[in-house]
Amino acid sequence: MKRRKRNLKQNPGKTKTGTETLGNKNVILTPRNSCVKGKPCLSKAPRPEQQRCVIKAFLLGIAATVPAFLITNLFSWLAPPDLSPIVKITVKAFLIAGLVEETCKLAVVKKYLMPLPQFDKITNAIIHTMAVALGFAFLENLLYFTKAFQPWRLLLIRGLTALPLHGLSAGIMGYFLGRAHFEGDRKIIPGFLMAILYHGLYDFFLFTDSILAYLNIPLLIILAWHAKILICRGIRKDRQTSSKIHD
Length: 247
What we know:
Number of helices: 8
Distance between the termini: 37 Å
Structural class: mainly alpha
Number of strands: 3
Oligomer: single chain
Order of helices and strands: HEEEHHHHHHH
Radius of gyration: 24 Å
Low-confidence stretches: 4-44
Shape: globular
Mean pLDDT: 82
C-alpha cells in the first residue's frame, strides 16, 4: 500500500479510474486505444448498439424481400410477350431482378439505417448494407426452396453463389453509401449502378439455362476482388478520419 501511494504521488496525473491528464486534456485509457474526452472514441471493440443495428438491418433485408417480390411479379406480368428470348432474358435480369431488388435494398438502408448514429463510418455503412442484402437473400432462398423440384440441390447452389452475390454487391454499394453520408448523395449513384450490373450479369448468365451459367464463377471472383478493394479503401479512409479527429 505504501509503494502504491508513493507511485501515485510520483504520477499525480494518473487516477484509479484509468484516466490521465495530458496538458489540459483528460484522456480515457482503454486496452487498445486512448480517447480524448469530448471527442468521438473510435474503439475497435463492437458496441452493443452496433450489434443490435446489424440485426435490425438483417431483419429489414428480410422485410424488403416482400415488396421486391410483388414488384418483380408485376413487371413480369406487364412485360410484352412477343419479345425475343435474348431481350426477354436481358429485361428480366437487369431491369426486373437487378434494378428492383437493389432499389429495395437501397431504399431500406437510406430510410431506416442512414439516419442512425451507428451509421458513422464507411465500414459501418458497408456492414449494415451487407446485412440488409444477406437478410434479403435469406428469405429469397427460402422462397426458391419451397418451389424447387430439387430443393436441397438448389439451396446448396444458391448458398454458394447467390448469397455471395448479394453480400458482395451490397458491400460495394455500402462503400459508396458511406461516402455519400459525408460527401453528398451523388456518391451513391456509382455504387448503385455497380450493384445492378453485377446482379444483372449473374441473373443473365443463369437465365440462359446454358453453359453460360458457368461464367458466374469468374464473375463472383471479380466481384470479390472488387469488393475487397473498396472495403480496404473504406477502412483506410476511416483510419484517416480517426487520426484527424484525435490530432
